[in-house]
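Schema walkthrough. Field components (list of strings):
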Amino acid sequence: MSGISPLAPKKFPAMPEVAGVRLGAGASGERYKGRDDLLLAEFAEGTRVAGVLTQSQTPGAPVKWCREILPVGRARGLVVNAGNANVFTGKAGDAAVRRTAKSAAKILCAPANEIFIASTGVIGEALNDARITQALPALYDKIGTKSWPDGARAIMTTDTFAKGAARRVTIDGESVTIAGIAKGSGMIAPNMATMLAFIFTDARLPVRLLNSLLRPATARSFNSITVDGDTSTSDTCLLFATGAARHRAVTRAGDKRLNGFRAALEDVMTDLAQQIARDGEGASKFITLSIRGARSEAAARRVGLVVANSPLVKTAIAGEDPNWGRLVMAVGRAGEQVRTEKMVITIGGHKVAAGGKQAPGYVEKIVARHMKGKEIAIAIDLAVGAGAATVWSCDLTHKYIDINADYRS
Amino acid sequence: MSGISPLAPKKFPAMPEVAGVRLGAGASGERYKGRDDLLLAEFAEGTRVAGVLTQSQTPGAPVKWCREILPVGRARGLVVNAGNANVFTGKAGDAAVRRTAKSAAKILCAPANEIFIASTGVIGEALNDARITQALPALYDKIGTKSWPDGARAIMTTDTFAKGAARRVTIDGESVTIAGIAKGSGMIAPNMATMLAFIFTDARLPVRLLNSLLRPATARSFNSITVDGDTSTSDTCLLFATGAARHRAVTRAGDKRLNGFRAALEDVMTDLAQQIARDGEGASKFITLSIRGARSEAAARRVGLVVANSPLVKTAIAGEDPNWGRLVMAVGRAGEQVRTEKMVITIGGHKVAAGGKQAPGYVEKIVARHMKGKEIAIAIDLAVGAGAATVWSCDLTHKYIDINADYRS
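Field assembly_structure (string):
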């Protein structure tokens, strides 16, 4: 598909090196011609890893592999290929993953069960892993500490732009870096990570802590976006921590020294998640949906996601139609408690519904003007409790159908 | 929107009279110009009623009214208007319903709490019920026993054809008639009746029995279709039984004399439900999705509906792309148990997936040929249990977006 999403950031961000991480991109030729489709990352000895994987009942072979080796919590390498997801490929698919891990392990002089694998692309076609393993040695020769844009580009499928984000913080007064890359633009829905995302940091943190940081941040970032309500078989979010930073050990999740790091991690992940929604297949508008007054944060997120997934809401936004009745409909079907007569809905800050009906000062023209913009802000107060969450999405356009009615050909 | 759905039945069916039911159509001018938008039905004294209403947390005023009067179980009249759903219209909306019921009650010489009301159309706009009540007297003068097509046409919104179905059976050797009309083509999803449907019979059955017949039949018909996953605030399915038939009283749900009636009722409702899916906004293909091997019937239905709602599945079908990997993805995200390595998927009877991978004898050309047709048959065996269910849906096309990005203008 041609053309970069109109909602894309102006450019790929400047991203710092992360001590202990080297990466690079190469071409396997497995599916795509004339572009990189392979990412290899090497991690220093002692690197710890945490991950969240798709909750799909039909996960891909790489997901099963990651699930198997994650409990060990150590990582020395990461191999990602784009174009073939290696899903529903039977025992041959599992063997392909094992061979890839083994081959990378040999090159990186590391145990195979410390090599993480992720694949994205078409489902159900046999993966020719020989093309990948043959490309690895040459790729290894050119890995470096600055290849973020190349790495992010190599893992793209229908993405129209490469996605990266980074932050610097301190732990204990010592500088720590967090850098992440991600891909995803269709088959995006919140039932876990919903795409591929790899976050790298030089922080020195035990696996248990990495997990306790990663899970809530995933809920508020990658699990708070939706493009089409579909969940991939390959969703993978991995957080690698090399431990090269010079701060003293942190062992308790409640340790205050972690506060800045926790916020920065969520920031990087939210930034990447929003970029994915901005690259939603065919997206012409970026939607920020703030729900408050819900029974709980989780309830607020559920309502937000139901509204964000509603084809009728998404098409109304695509059509720049201030049809707020569809928001009422979508809130109603979420199944979460709402006090209809106290609920307040605003679009672009303008109150459209209140008191169980159209808001008294409602002026359709004001809302219509907001809807002509590229950034749509909708806020809904359910008037039940104190739970709040924000969800990001995009509209549903003809281009989504163009892309998806013709993906494979 | 112009043009009748390419999946529509050739013509409106010949429908018999139902003793004790008279109906007619009229024009209120509330929203639409130059067409009927009002249905009035009169029921003989002694008519019993059962109903299923939307589970939306933001139901319309007519739904609240029906919920209030359903426990009485008696019905003398039905008023339905199209164009304005009278939803999220505050206290004024409730008052409009009460005035409409009162006005119809006066004309029909019946108590107001035996007058059922349903509305469909735009949400959040005040209903000018005076237009409805003013039109009722003239409409009452022309009601009759044969106005099924007119009645079915009057309740349409974005529907492209009127929907009716009827069956004759016997109870106790005596002839009994079941006739139904329905409307719906967008905002169709399974969280109850998902549209307006009115079923009329002359059977003589107590309210308790009507309810016990209606609920499972709703699960297998109207709750087994989906167009876009959105649930209306106005979903209403009512079953009116005039008791004019001459069979002896039936009081137990287990009574074998009911078997034929039960099957015929489900038949009428399934017929109407399928017509709604065939009129799905922008539909170019009718999809029959048979799930078996699930833990239970309900689990099978859930999987079927998740697959049928997947935008990626729906767009692949619109694009005539035999991309069965998306079926695997959608099954996986349903969250129901599946034995991946034993699961079997067929499209148009041709095995595409088995043994955890592409089926050995798979020939893409055969599937591609099936997908060029208007009727798509997909069968999925989850290989877990004995639960089975069939779900009906349609594809997702550019026309859906045309219709919904511009509904109100």
